[in-house]
Amino acid sequence: MTSAVVAPTVETTGVPDLKGKTAVITGGSKGIGAATVARFVQGGARVVTSGRSQPESLPPGVEYIVADVATAAGVEHLAARAIEVLGEVDIIVNNAGASTAYPGGVLAIPDDEWINDLNINFLAAVRLNAALLPAMYANGRGSIINVASAVTLSPPPPMLHYAAAKSALTTYTRGLAAEAGPRGVRVNTVTPGNVNSPGADAIRLTLTAAGGNGPEAGGGSIPLGRKGEPADIAEAIAFLASDRAAWITAGNLVVDGGQVQAG
After folding, report:
1. Residue 172 known to be catalytic
2. C-alpha span between 82 and 76 (Å, rounded)
3. What is the CA radius of gyration of the chain?
4. Strands, E, within 56-215: which ranges?
5. pLDDT tens string 11-53
6. Predicted confidence band at 205 (pLDDT cuts at 50, 70, 90)?
7. Where in the sequence is the signal peptide annotated (predicted)?
8. What is residue 4's DSSP assignment?
9. CA–CA separation, 187 vs 248, rounded Å?
10. Segment among 1-10, 157-166, 242-251 with least mean pLDDT
């Protein structure tokens, strides 16, 4: 008989791998975004982050911008303020994302939900990169990490609008990497699996209540025996953002405890 795996306490590390770097991280008020902000600060980076509402607390020195990056105006505001605060931006982490599960299936997803998911999960990254990339190109350096989702690898019908938007993001990442690489800018994707975070927890509850068992519902087995923690994903993002990943671009780092491969 095998014993259950006990999830370790996942803590962000204090490795100074981002010392002297400046970063813009979207969706930094909770979950993966908050863990990434904390990891970058511990790594020595200066950070500007954003969200739709002001969080209760942030690591010391982090500049928080209230901005809805699902809108073009929100992205424009964030980009302008980030340049004011940081001067130059070395790293962009497009983490902001959201969706609503529709247990009734694909035909139950309203038209406006398809548009909303494209805006927050795909076009927010496209717009922010477009605003900040010209300066990266001029400087001949930079790193962009776009955060996708394991639903792209096995799309559940109730989340097809979300999976389609995140799939667009991964395709966009590969194409942008081809253009940006010769100009000194690396572009990669991090694809999280089942992670304990407010957004993912809400989706899992909805799908579980409706009898769903897609990746977001946590229905598949995870070889490493537990769901992920936000810090698991933050470590992957920090690695790809840092100079330790200097020869990695157009990559897609799946961080899911082995769930998709095992399925």
Report:
1. no
2. 10
3. 18
4. 63-66, 91-94, 142-147, 185-192
5. 656 689 999 999 999 999 999 999 999 999 999 999 999 999 8
6. confident
7. none
8. P
9. 8
10. 1-10
**Res 238 pLDDT > 70:** yes
> Which entry of 64, 102, 137, 162 is annotated as an active-site residue?
162
Handedness of CA 178, 73, 142, 27 (dihedral sign): negative
CATH class, domain 22-245, is alpha beta
* Helix, strand, coil percent content, the chain, rounded in steps of 5: 45, 15, 40
∠ CA(21), CA(120), CA(203), 5° rounding?
105
Burial of 55: CB neighbours in 10 Å, binned 0-12, 13-18, 19+:
middle
**Is 208's pLDDT higher than 90?**
no
Facing residues of 188 across strands?
Answer: 145
Where exactly are the structural domains of the chain?
Answer: 22-245
| Partners of 187 in beta bridges | 144
Q: d(Cα 228, Cα 225) in Å, to the nearest integer?
A: 10
SS3 for 76? helix
How far is CA 48 from each of CA 86, 114, 155, rounded to the nearest angstrom?
8, 29, 32
- Rounded to the nearest 10°, the torsion over CA 178, 184, 185, 189 is 60
Pairing of strands 142-147, 91-94: parallel
